[in-house]
Design goal:
The chain has 167 residues and is an all-alpha fold. It has helices spanning 3-23, 28-42, 47-82, 84-96, 101-112, 118-136, 140-157, 162-166.
């Protein structure tokens, strides 16, 4: 198979994946499976090798991270529904005071990101950033950047979050 053929195949596969997910709103997981089969067939792989390749590639990754992702999603829903993250943030702001509320947001982000993904933590805590900004008349960035720092540090370096587990 020539280099040009491989490049065209990759561009077509990415285009197909984007069209299925963005235009037709097909699940990303299903779209990845279909696209993987499409690439395997057009690259000339035997059908049984395509299925084994998909099982090995996706199965190994999913089996390794699925438990952490599943538990993170459950904990994220619990934190959001119970108001636990919001309660934690407000408690820390009271303890630190409004002058050091940015430090409270760092600690809140650090703690909340232990059971959930960074983006889930941000979605859960975004209303708190807006409320603090409105109440104290300070910029959203004054609270948002420290929150993201806490979320990112935990997400990147502290097990059992997905980043360190993947390494």
């Amino acid at each position: 198979m020539s280099t040009a053929h491989i490049i065209i195949l990759v561009v077509a596969a990415v285009s197909l994946l984007l069209i299925m997910v963005l235009k037709f709103k097909i699940s990303a997981f299903i779209s990845l499976l279909i696209t993987s089969m499409f690439v395997g067939i057009l690259s000339g792989m035997p059908l049984q090798d395509i299925l084994v390749s998909i099982q090995t590639g996706m199965g190994g990754t999913l089996g390794f991270v699925a438990v952490v992702v599943g538990l993170g999603a459950i904990f994220g829903q619990i934190l959001e529904a119970s108001g636990g993250a919001e309660s934690l943030a407000h408690h820390l702001v009271k303890k630190f005071g409004t002058d050091r509320a940015s430090w409270a947001m760092v600690i809140t982000g650090f703690i909340v990101a232990i059971p959930v993904f960074l983006d889930v933590g941000l979605v859960i805590l975004a209303p708190i950033i807006y409320a603090l900004s409105r109440d104290t008349k300070r910029s959203l960035l004054y609270y948002g950047i420290p929150l993201l720092a806490g979320l990112a540090v935990t997400h990147s370096f502290m097990p059992p979050t997905p980043g360190p587990i993947a390494v």
